[in-house]
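Appendix B. Raw example, untouched.
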Amino acid sequence: MTGRAEWAAALVRPEVRDLSLYSLHQVEARYKLDQNEAPWDLPRSLKREALARLADRPWSEYPDFHADRLRRLIGDLHDWPMEGVLVGNGSGELLTTVLEGVVRPGQEVLICDPSFSPYRTFVGRAAGVPRHLPPAPKLGLQMNELQAEVDRDPRRPVLLCTPNNPTGAAADPEAVERLTRSLDAALLLDNAYGEFCRHDYRPLARANPNVILFRTLSKAWSLGGIRLGYLLAAPELVSQLIKVKLAYNVGHAAAAIGEVALEHADRFPRRVAVVRARREQWAAMLREFGFEVFDSEANFLLARHSRCTEIRDGLAAAGVLVRDVSRYPGLANCMRIGIGAGPALRATRRALDGMLPSTSGGRA
């Protein structure tokens, strides 16, 4: 480092200096399957309704302090008391906020590898120390190993992504319940892909005051560009966590769009059902081309192939972006592929047919 860079780095906490920058180079492509986004935009009728609502709000005034209308709508959706709901600028903001509220300086936070890579940054911002459990042989969530760690020291918070990103594996709710009973700390369940999963973890958060369930409107609700997330927890716990949440953290635009989407919640389950059905079609197609495809409860698939890098580049040249995750622990030669709509599936098949042999003879 130069003298100026060394001077600047010295102003920053050591645990922040040790963090890696999480970033993603944006590339234009016709089929963007690298960020687990919804394959469809919000319906235009809902966009018009949201824009009209936004236009009626006084932009010169600050938004609601805690986005209480959104909190009420989310509470109604889940039959949850509004006092047990917090809303944020994406669920990542809320994960960071909660970690800052429940992690003591220097305290370990248990995380199952491989998982969402920004967790290390989130924990570091809270002055905690991530304790990564090594990957399981078949890339399922390491619930037995996690239970053993909790039994050894139950005072450490647990950050568990289920369904897990980037593997798609989901934890058995009974195993999570056993973990919860042994834990004398907070259990943060990142359930961003919950709508696509057969397991429902809300009863765990309802019954256990140390469980905090994080959800997002980015995936199933087609609002990735709006940045809206929320958490469900015991009202008694939320009354403490709200003290460290930033005020006015949801602006008028995000609030208006989120409100309209939630008021039309009946429009989205069919979309989720289509993605879940497409997931099986994508898995079958990838297996035809020799991929090892891991079981997924999310809106993406983890797939392994010995020619991973070549395939990624070939797909990109054909206008299909996928995420190379081969540098994650235990994920050599792996890529993560979002579940795209029919045109994306057909384009991917055509591109793979030009690179790999297919057991189906390359039928579209």
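End of appendix B.
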